[in-house]
Every structure is written in structure tokens, then in C-alpha cells.
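Collaborator request log, item 7. Partner lab (contact: R.S.) asked for a structural prediction of LysR family transcriptional regulator to inform their binding assays.
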Amino acid sequence: MELIALRTFQAVVEEGGILAASRKLNTVQSNVTSRIRRLEQELGAELFFRKGRGLELAPSGRVLLDYARRMLQLERETSAAVRQAGEAVGELRIGTMETFAAVHLPNALKAVRAAHPRVELRIFTDTTAALMSGVLEHRLDCAFVAGPVVHPGLAFDELLVEELVQVHARGADPVRQPLILFREGCAYRARALAWQRAIGHAQADAMEFGTLDGILGCVAVGLGWTLMPRRVVEQSPHAAELAIGTVPDDIGRVPTGMIRLQGGPTLAAVRTLAEAVASTVRT
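Returned to partner:
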């Protein structure tokens, strides 16, 4: 029984169908279908009932799902344990929000390099939702995300509380401007939309950008307003053109920290990284 077949089976169940699973696994539908068929032939059991275009998990499939999850979790733990044994010459895959990377990560990465000079550091920026998936799917060893994070497969270590502030161009009236946001999956996005509704902005529409510089640059020239961590705004090259306004704590205070797989071994370099971030925040 191949692990890729079990991953495919789990994806079909969790995503609700062949097409969605193929997108998640970045493969074509025919590959997903053939893997499921081979798995059924190998086990001698039907895993799904076909109902029109949909699929329903068969009793044999429900049994397999429990074992598949445990086997895939064991595979992830095995991989992490082997990498931990040889981590002095391995790699550390770190996920981070772009805003966190801009302010908190550089000094912490220097500390990791000093303590683990032969560990290769690989940094990936994305939204909180995508980073959570990356850790759960074992593509990332850890990630810095906006919380709180409550997930049975993830451990969340809070390292700081980020303060979000309303940002707009000096002299502009944000009430009459559209909101400028990161793309779907950003933890700040929902808070910004909630604040927009709470204060009754005349402009209910929003623009999306994929980069921090893109958002603050557009805000600085008066194209819109946004919510952003105070420290990011104050350190931005556009700071002189930006005005900052406070928001209520339920919107503005965001617990932020590191996520990693729940129950798995923690790499020494990951511990060093978390300690370095916490030390940087304290200073």
C-alpha cells in the first residue's frame, strides 16, 4: 500500500470529491481516480459509493480513513525524527506572514545561523491559512501566523501580541476610500472587513494586493486605507506619508506566534528560532 495512494484517498474524503482533491494535490483528475481504483483493488473493497457525480464514503472507506490518518501522521513524525537526527546538516523550512517577516524575522534568523551554521534556511511567505496547510501537510517545519490557532493537528506557541492600526494617506478621509487588503486567507483580512462594517465606511468595496509594499504604497498615495501592524507601518519607507489611527482591542490585538505539528519531535533549530523571536520582541 503506497503512501501516495493514502494521501490521495484522504484528500478525496476531506475535499469532498475527485476534482477538489486533484486541485489540492496539484495533479490531474485521472491520476486521482486511478489511485483510488488501485487502492480498492489492492484492498478488495469498495471505498466509495458513486452517486451521480458525487461520492459517499462506504463503510470500508470509513475504516480505512482512520488508519490512513494514523499512518500518514506516523510518516510525518518519522520524517521529522530522521531529519532531527541529522539536522546539523539539514534544512529548516520556515513559513511566515509577509508582515511578520518584515519586522521580526531577520534578527531571529541571524541567531539560528549562528547556533546552527550548517542548517540551510528556506523561507516561504504566504497567508495564515496557507501556512497552516503547509505545516499540516509537512511542507513546512514551522510557521509564524496570526492567531489564535485552535486545531487538533497543530501546536501554537504565542510569542507576541501584534497591534493592528488603521492606516491611510495623510490628509485623506478613509471613510470615503475603499479598503485595500491582502488576498483571501490573510488573518488580518477578516478583522479589516469587520472594522469596515462596524464604522460604516461609505465605500464598501475593497481592492486586493499580494504584497506588503504594494498595499502601503497604494495607501500612501491615497488610493485606499488598510489595517496593518503598527510596527510594520512605522518601519515602512512610506511612513512619512501615512496617518495611523487606533482601533478597538477586539479588532486590533492579534496574538501571533509559531505553529508546528502537534505531538511530533521539535527540531533544535525550531526551538532556537522561537526563542530568538521571543527575545527580539522583549527587547
